[in-house]
Task: structure prediction
Amino acid sequence: MTVDVTTRTYMITGPEPEWWYRDLVSCLQSTFGSVLIREGADPLAVLGAGWRFLHLPGDVRSEEFYYPCPPGESGDTDLGAALAPHHDLHARWWQPSDENDVWREMRAALADDRLVIAAVDNFHLPFRPAYADVHAAHLVVVYGLDETRGVVHVSDAMPPAFRGAVPIEKFLLSWGSANPTDVQDAFFSDSRIGRRCLDVRLGTPPAPLTPELLGGYLRTDTDGFTTAGSARTGLAGYDAFAAELLERCRAGDAGALRELYPFGWAMQAQASLHGELLRRCGRAWDDPALAGAGRAVEAVAHAWTGLRFTGAHGLADPSAAASDIAHHARTLRGAYERAVAAVGGAAVRL
Result:
């Protein structure tokens, strides 16, 4: 890494970040994927290894990148560990410590040849379709800062994919946005950006994925679905979540449907990646049962679409949408049950 103090230019070494995208993922998984590729890891093998249901009542935020992340023993949250429970992936949120020099931590990370994931408001980014139109919380990868030219270099794999320079003044508006309530986006506005960034670290490099290793992951995952606990996890947790969702809809609580959309995307993206990983391994290892289990988990991901979009369309009249919400919730519950059984069966054979 070369830093010219005179020109105040900070860029990662080597090529620009690679884009990583799947149709059902959000900016959370796509940005983590770019970081993992730069670390020499396979994003699908890391982000797709874990699969669970977890709902934290009162925790859901109106951000595209929301993901349920319970506090650890120290009370801190680790988004990397939540996304990749079987790997040594860790992530912490940070904000500039000095309002008179908001770039200090960004410069240090880039000088250390590390990518930064920054929270932004799409309203202020010229390359986003929502520019100057819709407020919405989003994530981008920052890979360079040129304070002399007045640009920040960002990468965004979410369509329409972009990689290049953004004027500093535009980035600062986006990075520091209040992200006010926007009637055009009830699900990702009304959530202050606050110049938040993610520091993502991959510790021990992932071991090559073998049937034995994947089998251990799957047995842990299926145990989480079938073992009831105090938190809303597994099939029992889904039942509690769905019952509360329906009760709130019948009572006309639009907040339940505003929360459903970002929360459901978190669960949908995870299931999509897990299913794809199992299908890929099933083909590579000539294991039709494993590939079939992958298709069953992908069916869970697609069933989330019906529930999420029904909730979005029912936002104006939750009580009227309650019967359709109940239908899609039952469909999703059946998909979960079949997928858990299929994954458990495949795990026994690995």
Notes: Confidence is low (pLDDT under 50) at residues 1-6. Strands lie at 9-11, 54-55, 89-94, 116-121, 137-146, 151-156, 162-167, 197-202, 232-233. The radius of gyration is 21 Å. The chain is about 45% helix and 15% strand.
